[in-house]
Amino acid sequence: MNILLKPDSSLPIYEQLVQAFKESMLNGELSPGDMLPSIRSLAKDLEISVITTKRAYEELESENLIYSHPGKGFFVKQVDFRTLQEEQLVQLEHALSSCIEDAKKLSLSLDEVQDLIQLLWKGRD
Known about the structure:
Elements: H1 13-26, H2 39-46, H3 50-62, E1 66-69, E2 73-76, H4 81-105, H5 110-123
Antiparallel strand pairs: 1-2
Helix pairs in contact: 1-3, 2-3
């Protein structure tokens, strides 16, 4: 699993970790029963605080996405992917709403915004 953290993101690092794990669950990279890296090893690999990693795991556990097995580690739970996908969609809608507000402040037309989205979308290929 490849986790890319963005230091310039408005999201705290622990939330970026939570998002990365959720995306990996959605795309099948992480399956129910898979063991997650230990808190310490993940923190070391990503060069972040153990506290940050622990907080991300606690968040995932509170959302019922992972569970801990004392002495063995953390594991992915069986997840209702529709619920997880819906949550991701809501977050996307919030991000797009924010972008639309910014575009309106810049007096961009809908066509200009759509052109920009298409340009950025194609640039990812």
